[in-house]
Every structure is written in C-alpha cells, then in structure tokens.
Fold this sequence. Notes:
The chain has helices at 33-49, 62-66, 78-87, 100-103, 107-118, 140-150, 169-177, 181-188, 204-208, 294-318, and strands at residues 7-9, 21-25, 52-59, 92-97, 121-127, 153-157, 161-162, 165-166, 192-199, 213-217, 226-234, 240-248, 260-265, 276-286. With 320 residues, the protein is α/β, with parallel strands linked by helices.
Amino acid sequence: MTGQSMIIARSLEQAAGFKPCALTIGNFDGVHRAHRRLLRATVEAASSAGLRPAVLMFDPHPSCVVAPERAPRLLSSIEERCELIRGEGIECVLVQPFTTELAKLTPEEFATRFLRDGLGVKCVIVGENFRFGCKQAGDTQTLQNLGAQLGFEVRLIEIVRWRGRRVSSGEVRTLVAAGEVGIAGRLLARPYAISGEIVRGHGIGAKQTVPTLNLRTDAQVIPARGVYVTRTSDLGSARQWNSITNIGYRPTFGNDDALTIETFLLDPLEGETPERIRLEFLRRVRDERKFESPEALKAQILRDVGRAKAYFRRVKQQTR
C-alpha cells in the first residue's frame, strides 16, 4: 500500500471526486495506534462497499482558532501526517482550512454541508469519544441520528489502550516532553522522530570531546533534556546510522541560551556530511549534567556510546 498515490484536496470543491466514500474524521496528529485503527477500519469499510477510503482533517488545529491559549504543540506536520495516512491505504484526504466560520457550524450544518453534500459519505468511522460542531455540541449519538436522516452509516471504534494507557496525541506529547521516548514509540507504533538541517556548532565537540552533527529543527515537540539512543537518516540519500544524541544547553562549557541537539554517529560517516537529517528517538540513556572538565565529559560520552552499541546489538539479536 505504501506505493499507491493519494489525492490531497484543500477545499470541498477540490474534494468533489471523493464521492462516494467511507470517511474518518480527526486531526491525526502523530498518526498513532488509535489513528491507525480508525484508518484501517475506514479502508475495510470502503473495500467491502465499493467506496473510496477518505480522511477529513483540519488545518490549523481547531484549538488555534477557538482557543489559541490551549492550542497544543504538534507532533507532526500536515505533510508527515499525509504520508503516514497514505501508508495505511487511504486514497483521499481533505485538509480542510479551519476558520471561525467553520467553528460556528452546528452539528447538523456540518453533517449536511461536509458529509452528505460535499463528500458524498456513505459510511463514517469515528472514535467513541468523537465530538463535532459548534462548541463540540455533537457527540456520536448526534452523528448516528444525523446519519439516519442524511443517509450514511456510522461505525464507532473503541478507545485504544496500550498496557492500560489510553493512546492519544496528548499522551504522546506528554511522554515525549518527559523524555519517555520508548513508551511514546509504543503508542505511535514507531519511534518518535524530528528532522531538520545540519548547522555549524561551536566547534568545541570536535576539539575537546567528540565530533557531532548539530540539528536545527522546526519540530514543536522536543524530547526532554538528556542523552538518547537514536537512529539518524540522511534525508538527501538512503544513508542511515546508529547514533547517540544529546539535547540540552551544554552546561560543561557554560550555560548556553540556545537548546542544542547534537548527534554522534556510531558508524563511520563516509562521504559528504548530510545537509538534512531525521532523528528517531529509541531510548533515553541519562539526564544531561555538568561535568568538571571536557575530559570527564568525553569519558562519559564514550560510556554512553558503549550503552548505545549494546542496545543495537540486543535489537539485532532479537530480530534474527
């Protein structure tokens, strides 16, 4: 499925070709396990009824319009979400601009304008906690009642849990911000990752400790300060390296105003230094702390490298 093309519309007019469709609705930030269950249920519903599997999501996040002070930091861009959604077999995505006008629509107006008339929906798949319409006045019972009136079926998906923990974008944000990247990866069903361009650092690492790649990123959710086992990918090629990454303010060399994300590659860097990389966070190693000297820091980095190499050896043995 990952090789298929997908139509991305930015208005109802552009989405006219989606009809008739099976549709799921949401923000899909992070495209975690619960989102994937919705997406797969949508693909199954579409396949069994000869419909197109489709997604309706909003940009910007509705909270940015109705309650900016509560707007969340996002785990993924629209482009990243679309790529992950495509991988689940969805054929059509409407990225609907969210405006104050849209926020004022009643549940009835939303269902009529978007679901029946705009998208020709025959089946809607949502989570059992789904809310919609002005001030979230509509719930799943409202949607089912409207479906009966407007001619579409409604299917509900139970809340998804992993080891008793509810899977949600908010929970993933909390875990990543706390440095719990291993558990966050379980909820996402893949490692949490950020990307960006490589920039010149202070040059201290190459001279006094170990050389690193310094990442500048637009990611809104950054793991807590500390050292992590990571996997680094060159976004300009197929190159990939096992690595270890420090996020922090370089306290050993004096407090720095700017947060730095410094990655040491465990494998040789052959060829040109990458211009843009993607960092996957696999496991937290330790907190960032101040050392009495660059030599002490270098010794700790080498111990961290040993722990990271041991981690990758275990992973390799488990996958044999």
